[in-house]
Write a structure and sequence with these properties.
5 helices, about 0% strand, mainly alpha
Length: about 130
């Protein structure tokens, strides 16, 4: 039974780190587009019906959220808020892209899946560490 528990924990750890790494890459790509391709991002925000003044604050909050996930994971309440904020952001992005049928909703759907895997496996991993 103990071997199964260690094996299962190792599986959770791999899933957590892999999903968190992929989520981080996706978020950093998004943030880089906000800063490096502002005109294109503005076009997408207008097309989706979002105000363009959200671009830079959203980029900053995404970076802060990633920092919390990677370095401040001991602050459980803060971590919960970050995951919740990312979840709402991704769901809004999914439905905005889905409703205008631009085909970009798959990226948001992928982000939601990675976020959920990271969140639930992370809870298991952190609970086993102490």
């Amino acid at each position: 039974m103990r071997v199964l528990t260690k094996t299962l924990l190792k599986t959770y750890q791999i899933a957590f780190w892999f999903s968190t790494l992929l989520l981080t890459a996706l978020m950093l790509y998004s943030v880089s587009m906000y800063f490096l391709s502002y005109e294109a991002t503005t076009h997408y925000f207008v097309q989706l019906g979002y105000p363009v003044y959200l671009i830079y604050p959203l980029a900053a909050v995404k970076i802060i959220g990633l920092l919390v996930i990677w370095f401040f994971y001991n602050y459980k309440s803060l971590l919960e808020w970050v995951y919740a904020g990312f979840f709402f952001n991704f769901m809004l992005a999914f439905f905005a892209h889905f409703l205008i049928s631009d085909g970009s909703h798959f990226g948001a759907f992928t982000a939601v899946l990675l976020l959920l895997i990271s969140y639930f496996t992370g809870k298991k991993v952190r609970a086993s560490n102490g």
